[in-house]
């Protein structure tokens, strides 16, 4: 089969790789029908995630069909259409029992495309299949479902829930990439007074408006002053950092009001300065987190009833074998307008999607 293989920082290829098979009794093998590329994959290619070994198939988001199951898999059958979660969960360790699947001590957590071969291939082995695969209702398309593998659970759990967004809050989302847009869409579920989206790309800010941002701001045009003007110099209740740069974390720290919350969602590959000399007396809470995906069943229910605007984030469709081209498009959003790039079967036409 073919897979997209990491060969070290700046080097990768769509190439022949061994077919996966069941290695442990709780494994399943899934034929990949739909897959997408995550900003974290770009961080891996830059060398920001050094634990990823050369030779690893990348990817941790997919929709597909179960083709083989191990003898201990109880909740799934071959032929079922499933969502492959970005996080695998053993279900038995201390953290899994607390619903913190991202911190799994039993061989799970974020392993696909990191510690074992991932989903950007024609087939993928999924460990702990009963907890790591979600059967899909017929009303949810592959394209809608694949965005529930990572970005919507991440935005919702690490941004909205960790940030404790509440009715009447002012929320600033710094970074209107895919996860930042998912934060905006799911923050609206909690009836904040206003949501402010900050980014450098006009196209992303336009989509942020469509997903529910009340105010948008170019990151180069003093977003802190805009927030001060909107809040009577108070600051925001919740600042969500959704980029992964030291500069954007510091912007969020300057935006937060006394008693406010800073939710760090971005993947950080470099140290960021925490200005405790400015924050020590302001009662500010800073949270970080790897997504646990405990909310995935809830998000699937909302998607099935049309309550999540998942498909609005998809800007480009590719056949699976055009993976290298899809990476180029996704890695240069300023030139391509890419938000979320989705790849499917070999007969899919390459299409820039017109978002509405």
TrEMBL record:
One of its GO terms (molecular function) is oxidoreductase activity. SUPFAM superfamilies: GroES-like (SSF50129), NAD(P)-binding Rossmann-fold domains (SSF51735). It holds the Pfam family ADH_zinc_N. PROSITE patterns: ADH_ZINC. Its cofactor is Zn(2+). CDD domains: FDH_like_ADH2. Keywords: Metal-binding, Oxidoreductase, Zinc. InterPro entries: ADH-like_C, ADH-like_N, ADH_Zn_CS, ER, GroES-like_sf, NAD(P)-bd_dom_sf. Residues 10-343 form the Enoyl reductase (ER) domain. Transmembrane segments: none annotated. The keyword Zinc applies. Belongs to the zinc-containing alcohol dehydrogenase family. This is Zinc-dependent alcohol dehydrogenase family protein.
């Amino acid at each position: 089969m073919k897979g997209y293989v990491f060969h070290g920082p700046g080097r990768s290829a769509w190439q022949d790789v061994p077919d996966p098979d069941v290695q442990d009794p709780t494994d399943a093998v899934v034929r990949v029908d739909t897959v997408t590329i995550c900003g974290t994959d770009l961080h891996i290619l830059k060398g920001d995630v050094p634990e990823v070994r050369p030779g690893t198939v990348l990817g941790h988001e997919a929709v597909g069909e179960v083709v083989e199951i191990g003898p201990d898999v109880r909740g799934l059958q071959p032929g079922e259409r499933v969502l492959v979660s970005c996080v695998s969960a053993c279900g038995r360790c201390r953290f899994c029992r607390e619903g913190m699947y991202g911190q799994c001590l039993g061989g799970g957590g974020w392993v696909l495309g990191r510690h074992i071969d991932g989903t950007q291939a024609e087939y993928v082995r999924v460990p702990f299949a009963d907890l790591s695969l979600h059967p899909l209702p017929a009303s949810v398309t592959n394209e809608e479902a694949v965005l529930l593998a990572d970005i919507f659970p991440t935005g919702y759990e690490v941004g909205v829930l960790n940030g404790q967004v509440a009715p009447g809050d002012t929320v600033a989302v710094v970074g209107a990439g895919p996860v930042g847009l998912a934060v905006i869409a799911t923050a609206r579920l909690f009836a904040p007074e206003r949501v402010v989206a900050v980014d450098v790309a006009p196209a992303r800010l336009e989509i942020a408006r469509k997903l529910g941002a009340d105010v948008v701001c170019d990151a180069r045009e003093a977003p802190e002053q805009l927030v001060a003007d909107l809040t009577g110099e108070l600051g925001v209740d919740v600042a969500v950092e959704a980029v992964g740069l030291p500069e954007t974390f510091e912007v969020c720290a300057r935006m937060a009001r006394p008693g406010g919350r800073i939710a760090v969602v971005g993947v950080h590959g470099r140290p960021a300065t925490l200005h405790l000399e400015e924050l020590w007396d302001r009662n500010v809470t800073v949270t970080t987190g790897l997504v646990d995906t405990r909310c995935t069943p809830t998000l699937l229910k909302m998607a099935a009833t049309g309550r999540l605007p998942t498909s609005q984030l998809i800007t480009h469709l590719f056949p699976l074998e055009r993976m290298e081209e899809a990476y180029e498009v996704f890695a240069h959003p300023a030139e391509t307008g890419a938000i979320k790039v989705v790849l499917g079967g070999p007969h899919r036409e390459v299409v820039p999607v017109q978002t509405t």
